[in-house]
Design goal:
alpha/beta; eight-stranded mixed β-sheet; 10 helices; 8 strands
Length: 296
């Protein structure tokens, strides 16, 4: 599909200048030239007729408010989901993977550093089958329920590849290319770092950004907030390194909602856009959870 952001790609590594009373910068000159040649303008207007105002132009994450505020996940985008331990980041990334697999013609690659591929696939299966993951792992689902869930999983025709055997951030790109993946998700990118070395977290972040940009595919990773200091969801509280704020095009914060009076966590997640490509930063939503059906 034609995406307006492709306009900014035509100027790279090209040296053409236009002169009036001043020298225009290269990007502006070539974009202006290409636009007025007619093809880009025609494709843009055709796409405009297909898209209603506020529609998601990229991949939907299955959360309509987030989709509307961000426009969805685009080729070349690198998103980061940040939360503290126990904030259900892995479960949310599993949901994203299932949503993407139903939208694209190709593979979604899910690289797990948080848990085994077997556990990740179990979470995805219960998301697809709308069953309880807790009951699945305790062998409490009956045969009819298992069969029904299996039929729903087969609908995706193997479009999700789950692996836990990538042991170095330099292995992300080869794994993407091995499976010709159209989307890559890394759960626990910071775990590639040895001894919590912030430099290795920064290099892993740069590796993800490079995969997204150079292969022109969407990429998402999960990261941690600092365990000490402010508990607020803010970009400055991302653990280890500032590189994540620099590299990611969209940063989503996530936390479980805690009831101070009852002194317990509710079946709700608060999500906040900490950084965005446009002006949506600061937008918040609350997502309800149904653990009996693994639904958001």
């Amino acid at each position: 599909d034609f995406i307006p952001w492709n306009l900014v790609h035509v100027s790279y590594n090209t040296k053409i200048y236009a002169y009036t009373d001043k020298k225009f910068n290269t990007e502006f000159t070539i974009i202006y030239y290409q636009w007025n040649k007619g093809k880009i303008k025609k494709e843009y207007l055709e796409k405009q007729n297909e898209v209603e105002a506020g529609d998601t132009i990229g991949l939907s994450v299955g959360l309509p408010t987030i989709d509307k505020m961000t426009g969805g996940l685009l080729p070349g985008d690198y998103w980061t989901l940040v939360g503290r331990p126990g904030s259900m980041k892995s479960q949310m990334l599993c949901k994203f993977a299932v949503e993407f697999a139903e939208q694209i013609d190709g593979k979604v690659l899910f690289i797990s550093k948080e848990m085994t591929s077997k556990h990740i696939f179990g979470r995805m299966a219960t998301l697809i089958g709308e069953e309880s993951y807790s009951r699945l792992k305790r062998f409490q689902l009956d045969e009819d329920t298992i069969d029904k869930m299996a039929r729903k999983v087969q609908r995706l025709k193997g479009n999700i590849i789950v692996t836990d055997d990538v042991h170095d951030f330099n292995g992300i790109r080869p794994k993407v290319m091995e499976h010709d993946a159209k989307v890559v998700i890394v759960d626990g990118l910071y775990l590639f770092a040895k001894n919590d070395d912030w430099r290795e977290v920064a290099m892993a972040s740069r590796a993800m950004r490079s995969v997204a940009l150079n292969l022109n595919i969407p990429a998402i990773s999960s990261e941690q907030f600092n365990r000490t200091g402010s508990k607020s969801m803010h970009g400055d509280n991302i653990a280890f390194t500032d590189a994540i704020q620099q590299d990611a095009s969209v940063i989503l914060g996530q936390e479980r909602v805690y009831d101070e009076v009852a002194e317990k966590y509710l079946n709700m997640i608060k999500m906040k856009i900490l950084k965005s490509r446009d002006d949506e930063a600061g937008g918040e939503i609350t997502v309800s959870l149904d653990f009996n059906k693994s639904l958001f």
